[in-house]
Write a structure and sequence with these properties.
34% of the residues lie in helices and 27% in strands. By secondary structure, the chain is α/β, with parallel strands linked by helices. The strands form two sheets. A six-stranded mixed sheet has the order 6-7-8-3-9-10, with helices on both faces. Strands 2-1-4-5 form a four-stranded antiparallel sheet, covered by helices on one side.
Length: 236
């Protein structure tokens, strides 16, 4: 399996504060990579840098063999990279369908028309004319993923999609992600639930205080190894 994304030696700053230190990771085409770590470890910063929303001070981001380190976000979207941000960030006054159509404005292809998206997300199909502000948390999260999917991404970056949601809703969302992956979409998932991350993904990258503490195929890892890397300890 070839790599769709290659990140090499990323240093990222917010003013004088350094958030990432020489971060490198690769994402195999067609796979699912879990990105884990404690709060403040740099997970969101890494996703934002890959998506082009945050500039890298040093290092490179390569996508499908092309270096895109300096490319603005809209160009990355057009190349097939989409981000589902933490907190959903929907347009509250717009309807479900209007929010999704915003994502389609810079679509990389027409692989995900509205009806295919509604088939993938039946929980929001019947809400298409409803304002986003009136939806439940799970429905809003589904719309956020659907909006990103409307851009027809080859690489979908998902930041804390299960945060604060009921278990049944999380199960439904992850079931949809499995379908997206089966359709050929490559996933990078920030997930606090280690059990779910290890059960869902093929590869894992753990960040600790802005540095890669562990990166390996999931089949080569134990939970003790992941927990130790998460907290900066040696496994017992």
């Amino acid at each position: 399996m070839t790599d769709l994304l290659e990140v090499t030696g990323l240093d990222v700053f917010y003013g004088d504060f350094q958030a990432l230190f020489g971060v490198s990771m690769s994402v195999p085409r067609g796979g699912a990579t879990a990105l884990v770590g404690a709060n403040g470890a740099g997970k969101t910063t890494l996703l934002r840098t890959i998506a082009g929303a945050q500039a890298a001070a040093r290092g490179t981001v390569s996508y499908q063999g092309e270096q895109i380190t300096a490319a603005p976000p809209h160009q990355r979207i057009a190349k097939g990279i989409a981000l589902v941000p933490e907190g959903r960030r929907l347009f509250a006054s717009l309807t479900v369908q209007e929010n999704i159509q915003v994502g389609a404005a810079a679509a990389a292809s027409d692989d995900w028309p509205l009806e295919r998206i509604y088939d993938a997300f039946p929980m929001i199909a019947r809400r298409r004319g409803q304002r986003a502000s009136t939806l439940s948390g799970g429905e809003q999260q589904a719309v956020a993923i659907a909006r990103a999917l409307a851009a027809a991404p080859a690489l979908l970056l998902l930041d804390e999609i299960s945060l604060g949601l009921a278990p049944l809703v999380v199960e439904a969302l992850y079931g949809t992600l499995a379908e997206l992956r089966a359709a050929g979409t490559t996933l990078v998932i920030v997930e606090q639930d280690l059990r779910r991350a290890m059960a869902t993904c093929d590869d894992l990258v753990c960040l600790l205080e802005g540095r890669v503490a562990l990166a390996a195929p999931m089949q080569n890892l134990t939970r003790d190894q992941v927990v130790a890397a998460y907290f900066g300890e040696r496994p017992t």
